[in-house]
User: Fold these one by one.
Assistant:
Number 1:
Amino acid sequence: MPTEFMEVGFRHILNAISDGVYVTTDEREIVFWNSGAERITGYAAADVVGKHCYDNILVHTDADGRQLCFVCCPLQDCIENGVEHAVNEVYLQRSDGERLPVYLKTATFEADGRIFGVEVFGELSSVAGQELAEQVQRLADSSISDPLTGLFNRRYFDAALEQQFALFERMGRRYGVLYVDIDDFKTINDTLGHAVGDEALRFISDIITRSARKMDIAARYGGDEFVLICSVADAEELNAYGQRLAGLVRTSRFSAIYGAGGQLTVSVGGSLARTGDTSEREVLERADRAMYLVKEAGRDGVAVEAVA
């Protein structure tokens, strides 16, 4: 049977099933993404084929909030060590931001002298029941999400930052960090009350969510501080990202403050990962220092440290 016919038939069969299926090379480059994967995740094949599964497209996490793409990837283990996996409590993030509990299985096959990895995944509700799936999802969300804003929490961000730095060291995948702080937040709480302060936090988080790109990771880091991991090539691009974010806050009217004659603004600091960095904390700390430079200069602005 001709190889071309087998390939066409293989694709037709995989596109006919309801589960999501994707295939990667031994370097984890996605080469096939079936119709089921498009339906479940919201990502079309054109959005992901050619990218790598370690780009964290689906933000796979386990029940403890660990990012499987970096910490203990079942597919990577399958490709490298030949260990097939079947996991019943994994969570992915759809293109619209919704988190979904799924089960997954991994396997490999050989073609033209190369090993390919296969991951099959499906909605947990289809095998466990909707009520149980929703309960499992609530528990998973609470382990990685900030309950007030819905962004990732500090625990998740710290783990993501560590893994981004590991990828930078191993593969040279440069990234930037933006550190965002609400200006005069204490005054807002003291004069308008903590309920308005909470609304301000949600207001900023909504702007960050709308501004962030699909591959970025945004979190509430504590109090009135937010952080983002951004896939950028250079300081100019990171600065433009920060300027856009600060501008959106500046030009968006937060009614509780605007009605009192004030304006909600943020100070943003940024830094890129550097070749000489020894840990992920250095990138974050530089972004934090840059943010304080903005504060000292009068707030409502952006400062990005130049690459050494």
Number 2:
Amino acid sequence: MPESASNVELAHRVHESGHHHGAPNGSAWLGIAEAVLLAVVAVATAWSGFQASKWDAVSAKEYALATSTTALAQERATLAGQDRLYDTVTFNGWVAAKTAGREKLAAFYERRFRPEYAVAFQAWMRQNPLTNASAPAGPIFMAEYANANAKASAKLSQDAVGIFNRGVSTRETGDSYVEVTVFLATVLFLTALSQRFEVMGARIAVVVVAFVLLVVSTYWIVVLPRA
């Protein structure tokens, strides 16, 4: 991540600046504290930037997978529509042949029914539809009617939504690591600023604020998931 590289470079410059200007009021212990802050920030920034990059990659992969899964779902939905159209056309042909008394032609259409449709057709025939006015209008209205492509399409669509949501979640995690990097950049700024103060109280106050921000940043690094 560019943010992490910039922060590490800034930490190096601040460290060199401290050596050139010296520690105001000869406060060696405060200089040591600032050096420790810089060292920890450099490591934490590198780790945060690394995690942000990995989570961004995971998010991009999830988005790509969601797109391909959606395409597969649409493909199966198209096939399901074609199956239903075929079922309707062959059934209409069977009805026409049956009502015309052309039993051989009707039997021909029955042999051309899809296996899934044939199950629903047999269940429909047991309702005596030719004489039973309360029977369903056709096999596609029977509970036994199934379409494997339609079921696969629904399942793929559901999977695509889940994958996309995972992509959103991983993206948010990557953004959280970027926010941590911004906090760490603030720590670097405050550490550099503290070395410019000659008043010990002001210098200590700035270092304390920087330390608090570092603790908060470290906490988020610990609790955030790792890629």
Number 3:
Amino acid sequence: MQILQSPLNYTGSKANLIEQLQEHFPEHINGKFIDVFAGGGSVVLNTSYERYVANDIIPWLIDFYKLIQIMDWDDLLDKINQYKISKDSPEEYANLRNLFNNNQNHVEASLMFFSLVSSCTNNLMRFNNSFKFNQTFGKRSINDNTIKRLKAYFDLIKTKDIQFENKTFELLIEEKINPDNFFYLDPPYTSTKEFKIEAGYNSYWSKQHEDNLWNCLKILNDNNCKFAVSNILEKNGVKNPSYDKFKKWNLIELNYDYEKVARNKNSNIIEILIKNY
């Protein structure tokens, strides 16, 4: 199975786990595959269901996907190149980041967003508590490999029935509750002093979000909706603080070598899939 990699280097991407995940996803779905935290889109793009809903709280990410859906390749490429940052110019990067953080035009901002992610440190998007992009310059830029990945992404999105949404997970789940739908959730992971998970998108994930998530899962379960949730069972011997909330469902341990991708090579993480079927 050839795995399509997202042109956005997304922390927590499930591209390297997709074959294992697929083994535990339903073979057939009468309704839609609901990707509640779509992120880089690896799960939607590397599975084969008839209809999808791909949701994310980051508006510029979803707007960028919508642009891919409606634009011709040459036109999209021209627009992307308008915001291309030189890999030798931290000034260009700082100026575009400032322009992006103050831009109210979501179409233009989505193109800026793609350029910033392609040029920032480790290509890892990061936001502050005010949801302003605050990642530093990474001395890199949109390159041939970026465009190659984007073209493959572009071609595949055109072949799929995907409805892109930019909603809170609570609202999306409330709107899509239907036993015919299947819900896949890959949320930001719980992070505490003892159980610290570092990722840029965790900046807007609070304990209240975590509590709301498990409440939403209970509602889905009570409404006979199948779901699967990616999460972490333990890190460096410390159990996930939410363990008591999800241990009642089926826990599938996945084989993923974090040593190959983590900046901290001493992290011992057990990745799991939680499912209610």
